[in-house]
């Protein structure tokens, strides 16, 4: 769906490229839910903001989808993220974590949805159906991660989620942050690292460990 005009709440700051119905209308637990994504708005956010970070990775515009293909990658990953929120186990119910730290709970939930979304979107069935290239998808994911990070990890849960993903990828040396601000990305390690991250957070972390890891991430990396 494309957005042609905005008024009322949707015309406030920040401009949203997606709405979650009926949750955004104040109905938290509904039997039927719908996600509305404005493809043109999403593509413009990526083009006008995320693409400006190409030089940080030393990539060229030709390493990314062209304008006609871009929305396929973005919406494919976003749909995976949406579905990622539905992957819930006993360890990821987050009820106890929410009682101790509601903000931390939201950040970790967004981070897990991000990584589950990437893994879903990069599966053979999805890449074949959507005609996605996995290496190109990994570049889109990393650029989007930095775009979200720019919003301020202490101001928005999705930005905080980007922060702890970034920190994890640094820890496993999938990413290397250089003194001049440039970032080296080992794309061959990305999906293995993301799989490790998803497994670590969803299976082995207790509530207390999740909070401790989140707090550690928020205080040890500065970019």
What does this structure look like?
The protein has 223 residues and is mainly α. The protein contains ten helices and four strands. The strands form two sheets. The chain has a two-stranded antiparallel ribbon. Strands 3-4 form a two-stranded antiparallel sheet. Helix 5 crosses helix 8 (157-171). The longest helix has 20 residues, at 102-121. The radius of gyration is 17 Å and the shape is globular. It starts with 17 loop residues before the first strand and ends with a helix. Mean pLDDT is 81; it is low at 204-223.
Order of helices and strands: EEHHHHHHHHEEHH
The count of helical stretches stands at: 10
Radius of gyration, in Å, reads 17 Å
Q: Provide the domain count.
A: 1
Poorly predicted regions: 204-223
Number of strands: 4
Helix-strand blueprint:
Blueprint: E1 18-21, E2 34-37, H1 39-48, H2 54-57, H3 67-84, H4 95-100, H5 102-121, H6 124-130, H7 134-149, H8 157-171, E3 175-177, E4 183-185, H9 187-204, H10 207-220
Antiparallel strand pairs: 1-2, 3-4
Summarize the structure.
With 223 residues, the chain is mainly α. The protein has one domain. The protein has ten helices and four strands.
Record keyword descriptors for this entry.
mainly alpha, 10 helices, 6% strand, two-stranded antiparallel sheet, disordered C terminus, two-stranded antiparallel ribbon, single chain, 223 residues, 57% helix
């Amino acid at each position: 769906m494309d957005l042609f005009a905005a008024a009322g709440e949707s015309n406030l700051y920040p401009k949203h490229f997606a709405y979650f119905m009926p949750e955004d209308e104040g109905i938290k637990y509904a039997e039927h839910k719908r996600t509305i994504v404005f493809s043109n708005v999403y593509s413009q956010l990526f083009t006008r903001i995320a693409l400006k970070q190409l030089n940080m990775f030393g990539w060229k515009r030709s390493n990314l989808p062209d304008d006609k293909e871009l929305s396929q990658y973005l919406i494919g990953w976003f749909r995976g993220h949406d579905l990622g929120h539905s992957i819930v186990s006993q360890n990821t119910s987050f009820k106890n974590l929410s009682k101790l730290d509601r903000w931390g709970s939201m950040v970790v939930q967004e981070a897990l949805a991000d990584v589950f979304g990437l893994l879903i979107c990069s599966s053979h069935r999805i890449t074949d159906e959507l005609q996605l290239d996995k290496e190109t998808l990994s570049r889109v994911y990393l650029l989007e991660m930095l775009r979200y990070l720019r919003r301020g990890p202490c101001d928005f849960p999705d930005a905080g989620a980007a922060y702890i993903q970034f920190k994890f990828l640094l820890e496993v040396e999938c990413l290397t942050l250089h003194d001049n601000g440039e970032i080296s990305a080992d794309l061959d390690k990305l999906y293995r690292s993301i799989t490790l991250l998803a497994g670590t957070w969803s299976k082995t972390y207790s509530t207390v460990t999740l909070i401790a890891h989140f707090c550690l991430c928020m205080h040890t990396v500065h970019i």
